[in-house]
Amino acid sequence: MLRHSRIIIYSLLLIFACLPLSCKEKPMPKPRGYFRIDFPEKKYETWNHNYPFSFEYLKGAHVVKDKSRLAEKYWLNVEYPSYNATLHLSYKEVNENLEKYLEDSHSLVYKHAIKADAIDVTNYIDMQKNVYGLVYRIQGNAASSLQFIATDSLKHFLRGSLYFNNHPNPDSLAPVIQYIDKDIEHLMESLKWK
């Protein structure tokens, strides 16, 4: 009898010991998350072809001639295949029409104001290289999150706009946008007119 009592006591202890494990909180679905993106160390290459400008771009990106039907002679695309993104570069020669190019660029940026939460503008000035520009950082669900213009005010005008080849989602794209933002800054710092 004593032996059966011990077995019963041990069984009850085992049941009560396991009971807290089964009385956990009710299961909840995990919140939606995004994949972690590991960025490689930044290394740059010089793009210097028979164009009126040269610049440095991120190694691993591809610089290709713009082949869209509206493309002009010196238009390029810097493609980021790993991030499904393209930086469209549009070059125009200034011929006493700089004000028109500036107004056009301004209106193209502010077309995104409908979806944007904010548009931050940063001046860029390099007097030694004669490069003056603006960088537009467009926050929110806008189609283009980064745009810039660069000019020497006399002969050259370059406009850039970053687009992703998928639906804009600022939460999931934020790390990539910040990563490419540094490349756009580097492009402007390395930009040289010919």
Please describe the structure with a list of short key phrases separated by commas or semicolons:
3 helices; 194 residues; seven-stranded antiparallel sheet; alpha+beta; three-stranded antiparallel sheet; elongated
Structure description:
It is a single chain. The strands form two sheets. The chain has a seven-stranded antiparallel beta sheet with strand order 3-4-5-9-8-7-6, sandwiched between helices. It has a three-stranded antiparallel beta sheet with strand order 1-2-10. The termini are far apart. It has helices at 2-22, 98-110, 170-190, and strands at residues 44-47, 53-58, 62-65, 76-80, 85-93, 116-126, 131-140, 144-151, 156-164, 192-193. With 194 residues, the chain is an alpha+beta fold. The chain contains three helices and ten strands.
